[in-house]
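Please predict the structure of the following assembly.
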Amino acid sequence: MYAIVAESLVKTYGGVPALDGVSFEVDRGEVFGFLGPNGAGKTTTIKILTTLIKPTAGRAEVLGCDIYRMGHEIRRRIGVVQQQESYELNLSVEKALDLYGFIWGVPRSRRRELVDELLIRFGLSEVRKVKAGDLSIGMRRRLQVAREFMHDMELLFLDEPTIGLDPIVRRQTLDFIKSKAREGLTIFFTTHILEEAEYLCDRIAMINRGRIVVVDTPDNLKREFGKIRKVEMRAKHSIPDDFIMRLMADSSFDRVSRIDPQTVSVICSTPGEAIAQMLRLADKFRLEIVSIYAAEPTLEDVFIGIITSDA
Amino acid sequence: MRNIFRLAYRAFVSSLDKPTLFFILIFPAFLIFVMGYAYSGIIPSFMLGGETISYPVFLASGAVTLVVVNSGMTVGTIIWFDRKYGMYEQILVGPFRRYEYMAGIILATILVSLLSAGLALTIASPVLAGTPVTLPGLLYAGLTLAVGSVLFGSLALIISIHLRSSESFNVVSNFIFFTILFTSSVFYPAEYAPQPIKLVAELNPLTYLADAFRAGLLGIADSNILFKTGILMAEGFALLAVASLMFSDIKA
């Protein structure tokens, strides 16, 4: 049984399509990544699945419940961390956590345990008495993510949850989410940061201009679409401009960039030929090479390749 | 029902902190002890509903109803803050229905209003000492305060739903508050006012609230009291209906 089934979802705003026939399934216990550029339809999809808005056409089921008829039942069993900030200006961090648990009907003793645990987990202990309105954006984001774990849920929607977090807290947050996934929580995760998706997700859907372009595992996506490679060469001394110009003149290279005075990178689909060409040129220019290698494609390379080819 | 109580408690806690409560109470306290006594030197006791009443007592009882307006505006506007700071959508993706969210706010408005009015009455007790208060009169006064809180809470909801920018929200809510205050019978009996002001006062729900509350609290005989109470209730329900309609149209 799927956690989410979306079939041909369409949403238009004033005749302009935000979603144009989106279909996908999410397995129970799966961490499902939803990737796309700004305005691709990620948040609209989440709003439909969390029953905040109705689609113009199409159907969807969340946890076996129809989004049109069983919105309340769905919302009772899910958690949502929205992309936009959400907090109560006047409440302290611990009061905000406690109050959120209260409105979800969590018993007082359990709330106390959860507040203490989440304050530590999300590094909020030192600001537990500080009002949300006085926190930094990053701290408020931590509070917002932590707050959602004040109640039980079967499915968690995370709409770019790490916006505003520094790298260390981001990793801690992802680790916490991953630990929840291991306990069986299904997660629907949107992000712009592709390493996050690669780190967290079992499968990834890429959406562009309201349409799903591809759905697969991160490894398969890289295998399938990661033919584009980056070859990077580092010389002992500064690389002359003529060297760079000669590389640029080669039509088989998609992009040539100078990283720093001693380093140049080439984006291409034939890394072997690129390395051979760079070695020949280095010999001609009498350059002493420190290193030369073809990097593995990252999910970012795949993402850019797919979105660019879909444009 | 449980969801409504939970959301009411949330609205209560998140909109009423100590500084807010202090400012809800300091204004009527100022009216009661500064304006009431300052003006008593030039405003002699006067007849109201067949009773002789001093200006401080008149103003003190009116000031308590002012607390209801203030409380209603404070709690009713929580929806404005919830929308601005993202809690509105956050609650709607939780296990709550829209009407529960709104009912929670109205219930919290009533609770905060009655609590603040109770505190304001305590503050005013030195002025009101000696007033023959009866239990039915007190219950009636409490009922009018509850109806008044629904009315002004609904008015605050309408303003909050309609206005999005903080600038227009502050300007409009202040304008409405002071217009309602100065054209009501909080400061003066409407029947003694010049005809144009009397006309405006008769359209002002705070006039009916202040008159009905005084009638209950001070035991002032008023032959029109049932009519005034009826108007107050009708206006309260009308504003609640408008607020509900506007609320149901809010797009997530």
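Chain A has a mean pLDDT of 87. Chain A has two domains: 2-216, 225-310.
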